Write a sequence for this structure.
């Protein structure tokens, strides 16, 4: 069993579950490929308005499946293919997804799990969650694009601590450092993630997609980046930013506000 990426739907919500029994949902090579295929599918559809990314059995993801590593990590070409094609393919598909992504984090969020969480727009964690990338203990560094991804989400000081000291931080520390939106106790993170995703899904979906594209373009233009092979043209996006003026969502949203009713998007 090499694990799998489970996919379920709940109306306009897509539920993506990292599942690898007995390995704390560690990401296998097959799972990285499945992750990419699934997010390409989500991006291509207008069916879903929000995605919850979570782990099975009370754990988000403990990292990569180390049992696979001897088969490819010691060959430079094979190692490059793994990180630049398989791993980055999955992460890039998440980053390119215009549908809002909510991370529901419980238990271990290490290495690959930290990278996957870094791709999400909103990150909620159980109070008992733990975060880190202790790969120094395994004798190798984090891949360049993966390092930059996590650094942009968690901050350079945090990433230095994780990579150089193999530090493991708790949810409270990660919230203080700006990585988490909220820390939720009492085993309520699943319910909070679901309720938050439903609030997103009730809002204008095309506006959400436009916001994500704009934020991504500004992020790529304002800092030198190796995250993507092509930088989005923020100027073009700005030029087209107001084409929604006569759109049905815009009209309905304004009308509903003035009429003091709930909009029907």
């Amino acid at each position: 069993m090499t694990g799998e990426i489970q996919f379920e739907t709940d109306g306009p919500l897509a539920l993506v579950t990292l599942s690898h029994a007995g390995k704390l949902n560690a990401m296998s090579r097959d799972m990285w490929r499945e992750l990419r295929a699934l997010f390409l599918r989500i991006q291509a559809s207008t069916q879903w308005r929000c995605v919850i990314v979570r782990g099975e059995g009370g754990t988000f993801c403990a990292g990569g499946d180390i049992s696979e590593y001897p088969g490819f990590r010691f060959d430079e070409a094979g190692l490059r293919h793994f990180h630049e094609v398989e791993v980055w393919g999955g992460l890039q598909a998440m980053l390119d997804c215009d549908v809002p992504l909510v991370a529901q984090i419980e238990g271990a969020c290490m290495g690959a799990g930290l990278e996957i969480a870094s791709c999400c727009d909103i990150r909620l964690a159980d109070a008992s969650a733990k975060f880190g990338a202790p790969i120094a203990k395994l004798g190798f560094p984090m891949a360049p694009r993966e390092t930059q991804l996590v650094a942009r989400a968690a901050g350079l000081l945090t990433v230095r601590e994780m990579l150089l000291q193999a530090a493991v931080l708790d949810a409270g520390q990660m919230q203080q450092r700006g990585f988490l939106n909220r820390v939720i106790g009492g085993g309520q993170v699943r319910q909070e993630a679901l309720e938050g995703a439903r609030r997103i899904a009730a809002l204008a979906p095309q506006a959400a997609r436009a916001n994500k594209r704009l934020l991504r373009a500004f992020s790529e233009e304002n800092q030198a980046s190796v995250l993507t092979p092509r930088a989005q043209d923020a100027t073009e996006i700005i030029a087209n930013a107001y084409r929604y003026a006569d759109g049905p969502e815009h009209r309905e949203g304004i009308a509903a506000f003035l009429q003091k009713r709930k909009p029907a998007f």
Summary: Residues 224-231 have pLDDT under 50 and may be disordered. The first strand starts at residue 4 and ends at 10. Residues 204-258 form one domain.
